[in-house]
Each structure stands twice: as C-alpha cells, then as structure tokens.
Amino acid sequence: MNKSFTLVQLRYFGMVARLENMTAAAAELNVTQSTLSSAIGRLEEEFGAALFTRRSSKGLRLTPAGKRLLLGSQAFLEEADMLYQAVQDEGDSLTGNLIIGIYTPMAPFKAPVILQEFESRYPQVKVTFHEGDQESLRQALLDGMCELALMYNQGVGKEFTRRALELIPPHILVPADHPRAATPRESVSLRDFAEEPLILLDAKHTREYYLEMYNKIGVTPHIRHVVTGYATVRSFVARGHGYSILNQRLENDSTYAGGSVVGLDILEDLAPIEVSLVRPAGAKATRKSLAFEEVCIEMYSAGTK
C-alpha cells in the first residue's frame, strides 16, 4: 500500500526528535504546536507505530520505530533537497543541517579547527556539534541524533562502523614542580608512580581503559580523586593533588586553575587509543556527513593540530 507522508512531516519529525520537546520544536520551526502535533500524529498513522513515548515532565523520547525512521530519513531528506537544487539548476552544492558527535575532551581543540575548514568548503551547511562521553555518543548515534561522531574506539562494537584516524599513546601528566618534570624528554615507568596519588578520569569505557593499564603491569594504583572532566584532571594535577594518565596532549601546558603540567612518555608498551569516525552500521550516509568525514581524514592525514 502506498504511503502518503510528506517531506514537511519528516522535517517536523526530525526537529522534534532532535529537541525532544514539542514546544521547543514548534518555536524553532515557527509553526504552532497543534500543527506540529498533527504532523507527528499523521506520520504515526501512516507508519502504524508510535514514534515517541510521551513523558509528562521530561518531554519526548524516540521509540525503536522512531529511531529507525530518524536514521533512514536523514539521507532521504538530503536526496530530496538535491533534487530541488537540480531542478533549480543550483549545481551540486551541499546545504542544510548536520549534527556531528564529538568526544568532549577533544571538542575544545578539534571542533573549531575542523569546522573552520569544513565551512570554508561548504558554507551553506550548518554544523552543530553534539558533545558527550563515549557512552552518550554511542547512544546518540544509535538514536539517530547524530549520524557521525568523532570519538575514541572504546565501547564501539559491531553495531557501528568506524574509520580510524589516529592512534594516541597514553602519557603520564605531572605538575611542573614534580621531580620528574625536570627531564620531560626521558620516558618513565608507570610502576614508579604506584605509590603516588592518582587523579583518574572517570567516564564509562575510558575509566576501564586506564585501569587496565595498571592491571597489565600488575600494579594497584593509589586513586586519590575521581573526576569526569578532562580539563578538571589537568587542573587537579597542576595544583599538586596527584598525577594522571591521559592520551590527548595539548600544546599549552597551563590550566584553568593556574599552574602548569608536564606530559611524560611511558616506558611500558601500553595500548594506544584510536581516534575514529563512527557511524551506525547499515545506516545510509548523507552527502554532508561524507563531506565532513573527508575533511577530517585530510586534516588528520596532514597532522593538523
């Protein structure tokens, strides 16, 4: 049986799915809430399935059927836009919105640089970055909230495809007045820090990755503080609360809390982190996301900081 849903209904659905709130979506689309609610209702009738679960105080959440529709509709809507451009003889330029997931510790120094290059090539595409930890990015990809994410490989299973961009070895971070900081070019053993207080970056998958390093060398770390923010870890270390292990290195050694840190290479052969572009397996990629992927690959290949 032929279905008669419209592109407008799909676009309305996509906005509600992104904002998880009917009122906010109506304001963003500049339509009445009743118009929006009616469009969603008609879509649900056409597909014969509820697309959202209604939570009185917490907005809306996509159902499994809604997630599948969101994943499938993004490329479909882009193709519709391209058809319009072809009829209008507007060439092959890319337009529209693109949501990219990005691992929070990477966002401050990767997102602006990549965005600048992408916008110089595709000025008509509006990119929005969705920041999160590994687990929240996995869920955002599966929920269709973003179709591509720049993140680490931890926790990325067979339900995703990934394109490796870079391998980053772990390093030890110490305050600038630490005895080891006097010879920053000399590699150090992680075993030598077993009795020193550890500032542990605490996020799902990331935490397990760091603790596995100690397990591999048969050492039990002395965990003093557990924090969830990358910048917070650096600040704690700079103020003398302990040392830490991180992967991403910054050119600037200063921290928000004052003081500075020094990164030291590790003697032990420990697993690096893989920076990857991750997509849900089986989802059709939009041309916008493929263009963003191409920019990332080029910039990482060129060693762009």
What can you see in these coordinates?
This protein is of the alpha/beta class. It is about 40% helix and about 25% strand. The chain is built from nine helices and twelve strands. The protein has a five-stranded mixed sheet. Strands 10-7-11 form a three-stranded antiparallel sheet. Helix 2 (about 20-30) crosses helix 3.
Short description:
The chain has 305 residues and is α/β, with parallel strands linked by helices. It has helices spanning 7-19, 22-29, 33-47, 64-87, 107-121, 134-142, 206-217, 230-238, 287-301, and strands at 52-55, 59-62, 96-103, 125-132, 148-152, 160-168, 171-175, 197-201, 222-227, 244-246, 261-265, 273-280. It has a five-stranded mixed β-sheet.
What are the key terms here?
elongated; Arc Repressor Mutant, subunit A; 9 helices; 305 residues; D-Maltodextrin-Binding Protein, domain 2; five-stranded mixed beta sheet; alpha/beta
> Would you tell me the overall average pLDDT?
87
Tell me the total number of β-strands.
Answer: 12
What ranges have pLDDT less than 50 throughout 5 or more consecutive residues? none
Helix content: 25-40%
Distance between the termini: 53 Å
Which overall shape is indicated by the principal axes computed on the Cα atoms?
Answer: elongated
- Rg from Cα: 23 Å
Total of DSSP H or I helical runs spanning 4+ residues = 9
Give the helix/strand class: alpha/beta
CATH superfamily placement of the largest domain: Periplasmic binding protein-like II
If you consult CATH, what is the topology of the largest domain? D-Maltodextrin-Binding Protein, domain 2
Count of the domains: 3
The name of the CATH architecture of the largest domain is 3-Layer(aba) Sandwich
CATH class wording of the largest domain: Alpha Beta
- Read across the widest sheet, the strand sequence of neighbours is 4-3-5-12-6
Order of helices and strands: HHHEEHEHEHEEEEHEHEEEH
Q: Could you give a short account of the major beta sheet?
A: 5 strands, mixed
